[in-house]
Amino acid sequence: MQFAFTEDQLAITQAAREMLVETCQPADLRRMLAAQAARDAARWQTIVDMGLLGLLAPDEAAGMGLAPVDLVGIAEAAGYVGLPEPLVETAGIGVPLLAALGDASRLAAAIAGESVAIGYPGRRFVADADTAGTLLLADGDALHLVDAKDVGLTRQESIDPFRRLFRVDWTPTEATRQTIGWGDTADRGAVMTAAQLIGIGQRAIDLAVAYAKERNQFGKPIGSYQAIKHLIATAQVAVEFARPVVYAAAAELPLDSVASRARISHAKIVAGEAADLATRTAVQVHGAMGITWEIDVHFFLKRALALRADWGTTAFHTARVLERIMTLPTGPDLTFSSDVARAA
Amino acid sequence: MKLEYTDDQRAFRAEVRAWMDANVPDGPLPSFDLTREGFEAHRAWERKLNEGRWGMVTWPEELGGRGLDLIRWLIFEEEYYRANAPTRVNQNGIFLLGPTMMEFGTEEQKRRFLPSMAAGDIVWAQAWSEPGAGSDLAGIRSTATRDGDDYVLNGQKIWSSRATFADWAFGLFRAPGSERHKGMSLILFPLDAPGVTVRPIERMDGEKVFAEIFLDNVRVPAADRLGEEGQGWHVCMATAGFERGLLLRSPARYQEAVRKLIALYQAHRDILPASIGERVAKVWMNSEAYALTIYAMASRLAAGGTIGPEASTNKIFWSELDIDLARTALDILGDRAELSPQARDSGDVGDWLGYHIFALGGPIYAGSNEIQRNIIAERMLGLPR
Q1: pLDDT tens-digit profile of B141-167?
Q2: Would the CB atoms of A226 and B373 count as touching at under 8 Å?
Q3: Where is the Acyl-CoA dehydrogenase/oxidase C-terminal domain (chain B) (predicted)?
């Protein structure tokens, strides 16, 4: 039993995090918006050069052969900076799916920076479909692999200016249909989204803390008042107790059991709630400035709002948690999914 | 990251489970806060635990423990609650004073007090709060006046859990004339010493869960001071860290209560709205989140890390989750929730009402949640005082 990241995991996460924080400041986001740029080409190239897109690809495909838990801290950092580029969805979902499909050339292209867009069953719109080289789309529950040149795209404006959502018009054929299904794609999506949400929540808190230290009212920084302190502390508690759930969900994802899937749903629910609380708290702490375009909080509030319902709504995930607690034993000796399988 | 127990850890769990199966009394013991008999029944259980060397498994062997790490401590607690073993009557001793003594005590104090603590021979009460000093603990007025090799204690303490029947107390006193955080000392004193008067305070349900302690020229040897003279505040803050951290309220306690809540929900779910099911799911998630967070903390400590002000997040989380847990149970019971277990038609109401009344104290004791939020804001997040 060791609920901690290894030195290697910490080193990779730290390197990625430093790069993201350095290159993706709110001023950079604003510059991209002014230029109407979908992605920052230099940063995307750095992501490719650092090998981040291939972390979960097998060794023989020039990947690192790592597991979802190795990527979870990087996804958290992507949320923390409000990253516009599809690092998480390509590295965490697209690349493992292409590897499972055995499509070596598309996998190599994806690792080299040709992003993958995911139209999972039930997902009405596909994010980043315009910059993707490969689209993995659903016809019913079946998985289809479609080339970018074979689809028609209709942009659907999201409140999050960096969410590039599209309705994808395409024709399923025997040639696009894949012999394998979606596998654990939904669970990977939920875990990686949950990780981004706790990053967003922490960023909102950090913004609120910074503002509360410098904004003066009644002759003192507003952060010296308990009313403000307690709002922010409550949000921090929510993030603190969501983070280990997300890490455990990522570590247990490969078990693919009712218990491990319930942990993933648990992670998605509480990470979404923490991000929601933290971003709303950040707005409140900023006062009237909090609802302006000028203050950076909105980047994170909008991303949280978008991701909360992505990869399964709270209602969907609550149903999975209820299934687990109603059909399998619970109790103090059954925290970890491997033990639940043994006890059942 | 490896979220699986080793074979050794599994074997340890099996060993604890076998012992608990063979030794935990059938049915609950009488309350330790109502009668001397109930208190002594719990002391007898502590002695039995100690005979099996289960009194405090993390302590070194020479002090009555097994020298086990925190992961095994969590496993022990899981099996303890799973077996519905009696509440630890000496929790103020073993979970608060014990670790403090391990850190600040002299070798002589450790030898004298820790084995007797693990054995339940001396049951401890905490004597910190005063009528005029609750959240503002640095405002205490009770004094310890040095007189040669002795201290003479005077003043009044309040909200001392277990003090009605306990044997000794660890109290916070100040040198006459000292102010605020300076001049304090943590001093151990017997509750039957001349000059000590203990007056029980009834909780709203009639249980004498805490007491006032009056000290009138109580003479104790200076050797019974824990830590340096004048360093009492520093020593107390370390104790408070244990209180809010992973010792006092282990996750197993809530996970076992949630297991019972789920059983209650299953028994009544046919007539309950879906919203109750969602609340049950929420409480389960929170108890699990607490467990996972504590496992992560234990892993960090095992790797040489420390727990700082984030212990305050624990205190808020477990106390609020406990109230949600109790309220969900009461809402499942509906119009029977108000019934005492003695009511003729109480059926399966159990003691959720008592659970609820106890849970209401959670956000208050061990430092109110308002104080915890101040600590998080100021020491974790760096907001100005």
Answers
A1: 999 999 999 999 999 999 999 999 999
A2: yes
A3: 230-381
Angle at A240 between CA B94 and CA B319, to 5 degrees: 45
Total residues belonging to chain B: 385
Taking the C-alpha atoms of residue A124 and residue A304, their distance in angstroms, rounded to an integer, is: 18
The answer to whether the Cα torsion of A91, A93, A99, A104 is positive or negative is negative
Measured over the CA atoms of residue A89, residue A95, residue A98 and residue A100, the dihedral's sign is negative
Whole-angstrom Cα distance, residue B127 to residue B157?
6
Asked whether the predicted pLDDT for residue B65 surpasses 80, the reply is yes
List the single best residue of A226, A268, A330, A338 to mutate versus B (max B Cβ within 10 A): A330
User: What interhelical angle do A226-252 and A68-81 show, nearest 10?
Assistant: 150
Within 11-30 of B, beta carbons closer than 8 Å to A belong to 13
Architecture of domain A185-343: Up-down Bundle (1.20)
Report the candidate in A126, A40, A20, A78 with the shortest Cα–Cα distance to residue A303.
Answer: A78
Condensed to tens digits (0 to 9), the pLDDT of residues A303-344 reads: 999 999 999 999 999 999 999 999 999 999 999 999 998 888
Contact present, B339 and B356 (Cβ < 8 Å): no
Residue B347 has pLDDT above 90, yes or no: no
Q: CB of B136 within 8 Å of any CB in chain A?
A: no
pLDDT band with cut points at 50, 70 and 90 for residue B246: low
Question: How much is the pTM?
Answer: 0.97
Cα B345 to Cα B205, B272, B336, B357, distances in angstroms: 20, 20, 9, 21
Structure tokens that stand for B163 in this block: 């003090």
Sheet holding A116-119, edge to edge: A116-119, A134-139, A142-147
In this structure, are residues B232 and B185 in contact, taking their beta carbons and an 8 Å threshold?
A: yes
- Model pLDDT for residues A42-82, shown as the tens digit of each residue: 999 999 999 999 999 999 988 899 999 999 999 999 999 99
Q: Which token pair is B364? A: 């208050």
Start-to-end C-alpha separation, chain A: 21
Q: What is the pLDDT of residue B38?
A: 97
Beta bridge partners, B153, equal: B144, B218
One-letter identity of residue A231:
L
Assigned fold of B124-229? Butyryl-CoA Dehydrogenase, subunit A; domain 2 (2.40.110)
CB contact under 8 A, B1 and A331: no
| B245-380 shares the fold of B124-229 | no
Name which CATH class applies to B245-380. mainly alpha
Strand partners, A221: A216
- List the alpha helices (DSSP H) in B119-250: 232-244
Q: Annotate A56-88 with b (16+ C-beta within 10 A) or e (fewer).
A: bbbeebebbebbbbbbbbbbbbbbbbbbbbbbb
Q: Is B338 a catalytic residue?
A: no
Q: Which of B243, B256, B310, B338 is catalytic?
A: B243
A246 pLDDT tier (thresholds 50, 70, 90): very high
Residue whose structure tokens are 């929510």: A238
| Sequence spans of domains, chain B | 7-89, 124-229, 245-380
In what helix (H) or strand (E) does residue A300 lie, and over which residues does it extend? helix A297-308
Q: Which residue has the tokens 């009138």?
A: B216
AA letter at B96: L
A and B: number of Cβ contacts within 8 A: 171
For residue A212 the two structure tokens come to 């509360």
Q: How near does any CA of chain A get to the CA of B136, in Å?
A: 15
**Range(s) of chain A covered by CATH 1.10.540.10:** 7-169
pLDDT of residue B245: 66
**So what's the pLDDT on residue B342?**
87
CATH 1.20.140.10 domain span(s) along chain A:
185-343
Token pair listed for B87:
């509440």
DSSP secondary structure of A40-55: -HHHHHHHHHTTGGGT
